[in-house]
Amino acid sequence: MTEDNYSLTTEFILIGFTDHPKLKTVLFVVFLTIYLVTMVGNLGLVALILMERRLHTPMYIFLGNLALMDSCCACAITPKMLENFFSKDRMISLYECMAQFYFLCLAETADCFLLAAMAYDRYVAICSPLQYHTLMSKKLCLQMTAGAYIAGNLHSMIHIVFLFRLTFCRSHQINHFFCDVLPLFKLSCVDPYINELLIFIFSGSVQVFSIIIVIISYLCILFMIFKMKSKEGRGKALSTCASHFLSVSMFYGSLLFVYVRPNSVKEEDKDIPVAIFYTLVIPLLNPFIYSLRNKEVINAMKRNIKKIL
After folding, report:
1. What is the distance between the alpha carbons of residues 75 and 22, in angstroms, rounded to a whole number?
2. 3-class SS at 91?
3. Which residues sit opposite 93 in a β-bridge?
4. Per residue in 55-105, pLDDT tens?
5. Are strands 11-14 and 91-93 parallel, antiparallel or unpaired?
6. DSSP character for 168?
7. Sheet containing strand 11-14, strands side by side
């Protein structure tokens, strides 16, 4: 090998979506709109939950933290992506790369545990309504929320620490719109087998553990719903869970496809549309999924809008 082939790479080029000038402008406007709506929707939901005392319940505490993590996910990815639409070099340093992945991994891991906590909360509310305030105390709610953040930080740090064992001396082009670890592994001149194994083990464990909690919670909920004699009671219970189940299905499905399927490193081209879905589309949709069908949130919005006006 020549000396150039051994030179280590500390900066990368994010290939992004396209080099076509007109298409770049259209995509920039689309993704900027998505970003602004995502931030307004999620941070607005966080602010509403903080201001409205009636929403200071476990379900809305989990929902507010989910919205906060969705904002974190959008902030980690979108600003750099928008900048690169009109940047000549589209460069990102290795440390910027690590920071971007750290906050993305933190947000996605915390989301997994928050969604599981929300499923358990719905199970208690529907299956044991008389014991709800005992089983879902504010102390337990705060412990579960703190646990989600701690798990997110630990999971991120494990992968960041093991990234330091890699050196990059191949191509410096990342075939993605953000700095994900899977495309990075392909550029390593050190065998990334350990890193790939850690991604599979830890990401798989986080997702499988939280999915099991969600599935068990919803099976119990469905069993309880089928036992209800009142049609009105069934409809109310199903309506309460429908938005959460929709969000869970989209989120876990996309993450499992990207990080846990076999040969995920080799088939990175297939990941880009799915990555758009779980990093940009789901954070955009979540505040609308949870608020538009929720009378308590809508009424709280109306009350606060009247106070402002």
Report:
1. 25
2. strand
3. 11
4. 999 999 999 999 999 999 999 999 999 999 988 888 999 899 999 999 999
5. antiparallel
6. B
7. 91-93, 11-14, 173-174
